[in-house]
Amino acid sequence: MKLPSGTFSGIRLKNGQVTFRISPDVDGITASTVAKEVENHREELEAITGLQLSTAGIGNEVKVVQTTGKSPKYYTLTFVLCGIIATAILAVVAFYMFRQHHQSRQKLAQLSNPDTAEASKDYQDLCRQKMQSKSSEKPEPLHAATRIASVSEAQVRSPSSRSSTSSWSEEPVSSNMDISTGHIVLSYMEDHLQNRDRLDQEWEALCAYEADPCCTDVAMDTSNARKNRYSDVLPYNHSRVLLNQSTNASGSDYINASTITDHDPKNPAYIATQGPLPHTVADFWQMVWEQGSVVIVMLTKLTENADAMCHRYWPEEGSDLYHIYEVHLVSEHIWCDDYLVRSFYLKNLQTNETRTVTQFHFLSWLDLSIPTSVKVLLDFRRKVNKSFRGRSCPIVVHCNDGCGRTGTYILMDMVLNRMAKGAKEIDIAATLEHIRDQRMKMVRVKEQFQYSLALVAEEVHAILKALPQNR
Asked: Are residues 336 and 401 in the same domain?
């Protein structure tokens, strides 16, 4: 460019960059002109200086990188190694997630035969994994054991091998219960639970009670007999659930199920039924659909001590078709060791209508026995009622026979619902007789009746404790 001396000033080299200033006294020479000339003579400058020119511009320093003999293959090798490492990490993570998912599915599948020690241990481990975020929960208080002496320690306390994740303290007790009624009922319950003679006398009186009417000839008909799981547990004619014959798979209106009403005979609060048999699953879903039910309470495992209690009436995954009813398993959530919740889409293929049905499956209650804790079933009931709140359709409740565990749950729930609505008088024995008028053998053994008293006493105590003292 044949520039006079002094055109460039402040020349310095730092970090591979050459910077300088353009003297304003030189006519026609500006920083922009110099930058353009540098770009135009890039190759000549690189040949003269042995440097590689990166860029040039106004306000930006000219970055130079000294040309070396290093091969770009080192950079390529670095990128390749990084890619291999990243791929290996992703593969390990993917394999771990796949294995965990596979193990979870295997353990869930064992619920259909959970009586072996190994299956029980695996299931408990899976529950703990699902609920590990709640590992800091406080242990269940034991005041129920000291207040209700007739319930043994083994009945109230959960075994140490079980990890209870009850949300007892998470859901506040809310009730319109009359305080004076609550105290009277609590005193009555505790007196019966502590006085074995009074409990025995009341149970004997209940066993001697005979329902009227009690005709079961429809259930005993030869065309319906094979639809009964047990020949000694049959629905009464006047309270049995009637199916629509025109849409029934076998053209029948019979199912071993009974409507259970509380105060309104036209609107049953519950449907008590047996565990479905392989050939009555379609009838079961027809009943659920026609009764408008959206909640199922299942109180039995599929098998107990190698005895079939209930046929699996839902798909293990995806969807299954039962006559004209398509059932799709949407989700299966384990709340704790004692129960899990499944959500289904139930579709009527004739009308193309779809309904969501929620199943609450209680796992730790064997036939002709009671659970190990009162609080776990009360917590389970709260989950059920929270899902059911505001509904006017009946809750479908079943175990294996639809009377022992089913009757105990319905008795407890009916009494507590009455108290929550502010009932002034509660008679547990009379309530059970009312339920037995609608289905035979509801609450089969004395221990289940005693357990229902303990359930009511525990819940009433919790409600009274939560109520304001000045009410």
From this structure: yes
300 and 252 in a common domain: yes
Q: Is the CA virtual torsion 370, 372, 374, 375 positive or negative? A: negative
Q: How far is CA 309 from CA 38, 47, 153, 298, in A?
A: 90, 91, 28, 11
The DSSP symbol for 138 reads P
Distances (CA, A) of 144 to 141, 169, 173, 424, 466: 8, 15, 17, 25, 16
pLDDT of 192 reads 79
Residue 161: domain span: 146-466
Strands (E), 255-382: 257-260, 270-273, 295-298, 303-304, 307-308, 319-322, 325-334, 339-348, 353-362
**How does pLDDT run across 1-60, given as a tens digit for each residue?**
666 666 667 677 766 677 777 766 566 677 777 777 777 777 777 777 767 777 777 765
Using DSSP's 3-state secondary structure scheme, residue 185 falls into helix
Could you give the 3-state DSSP secondary structure of residue 325?
strand
User: Of the listed 310, 336, 399, 403, which one is catalytic?
Assistant: 399
Please give the structure tokens belonging to residue 89.
Answer: 């990490």
Residues of the chain with pLDDT under 50: 62-69, 104, 107-170, 172, 470
471 within some domain: no
Task: Give me the amino acid identity at 84.
Answer: I
DSSP 35-94: HHHHHHTHHHHHHHH-EEEEEEETTEEEEEEE--S--THHHHHHHHHHHHHHHHHHHHHH
Assign 350 to helix, strand or coil: coil
What pLDDT is attached to residue 101? 58
- pLDDT, one tens digit per residue, over 301-312 is 999 999 999 999
pLDDT score, position 119: 40
Res 191: pLDDT: 81
Q: Are residues 335 and 418 in the same domain?
A: yes
Per the domain annotation, does 170 fall within a domain?
Answer: yes
Annotated active-site residue 82? The verdict is no
Number of domains within the chain:
3
